[in-house]
Amino acid sequence: MRTLWQEMSAEIEKQKKLTDSLIIKMTQSDHRKKLDAILIPEIAGSLVCLASALYILINLQKLNTWYLLVCGIACLLVLFLLPALSIKAVYKMRSVNISANNYKQSLQQYSKGRMQFVFAQKLSFYLGAILLVAVLPVMSMLIGSKDPFMTNRLWMCYVIMFPFFYLFSRWVFKKYIKTIRDAENILKELEG
Amino acid sequence: MHNKQEFTRIIQENEGLIYKVAKVYTDNREDEQDLYQDIVYQLWKSFDSFRNDSKISTWMYRIALNTSITHLNKEKRKGGHIPIDETLLNRTDTSDTLKEEQAEILYAHVRQLNTVEKGIILLYLEGKTYDEIATITGFTATNVGTRLGRIRQKIITQIKK
What we know:
The complex is a heterodimer. Chain A has one domain. Chain A contains 6 helices and no strands. Chain A has helices spanning about 1-15, 20-30, 40-60, 65-95, 105-145, 155-190. In chain A, α3 (about 40-60) packs antiparallel against α4 (about 65-95), α4 (about 65-95) runs antiparallel to α5 and α5 packs antiparallel against α6 (about 155-190). The model of chain A has no long low-confidence stretch (mean pLDDT about 85). By secondary structure, chain B is mostly helical. Chain B has helices at about 5-15, 15-25, 30-45, 55-70, 85-90, 95-110, 115-125, 130-135, 140-160. The longest helix of chain B has 20 residues, at about 140-160. The N and C termini of chain B lie far apart (about 50 Å). The model of chain B has no long low-confidence stretch (mean pLDDT about 85). Chains A and B meet through α1, α2, α5 and α6 of A and α1, α2, α3, α4 and α6 of B.
């Protein structure tokens, strides 16, 4: 096995292909700084959350019953917490110290980062459920000036929405299970 | 402060190392290309912190393997890498077709190993001693020996299937 590999390596060594200009281009190609597929939606989502929170805050005095006020405050808390959790989780996941770590340390950091990321995503999901409950009556009051608890519509919305939300959450959590299992397997293998 | 000329020379002398790491840790051309470039970038980023207290290749393996970990389960990035001439990745691993096939089979078996095992076996196949593997990976030399025994057994079992 080693002999074959070394023969192969000797052959590869003969094939010098990198030019100076290509190497220089690669040193300038900064993938990390480029906002990638995870960070752009996270930042966009955060801006939407903050804009919504600001809107609710400015109009808080319009929530003229105790239950609407409770919903409003719940919305504010969730809308501030969600972006903070998400962005922190994304950065944590990418915080492997490539320069200083050895392989084992990197694997540990990476696996723990992924588990923390999944935990943050799950927590965000539950917070999202709270937001779903609280935001409907708040927006109904702020935009439509109607107390939706006085009508049947609100309850009908909840009855229709929640089964979909439940099914969606089961589908999402299935993906998280694989991520957690992979991370746990790496950590277990490191102990072995 | 290291300079780009020195860095370029080091990369050119060791481009085979980067190629092999990228090939072991990915299973398609696009990811291989992405990882290849990321490794070069991370080596450049870490170049100033290289203190000549280890061999250049030891440092390069450590950075390359660490970079490969961050590519695990990564969502494919669309664009964001510079197009590399296909010939850069289109190396023939040997000049003998039969040996070329055997090399591909060996790569395939190494790729099937888990992440921890991949790193260790790659370094072993590259001719690193147990002590050198221990330095790069952070395991003890004894642990490296034990793990290598298990990995060799695993590969033999895979080949027999």
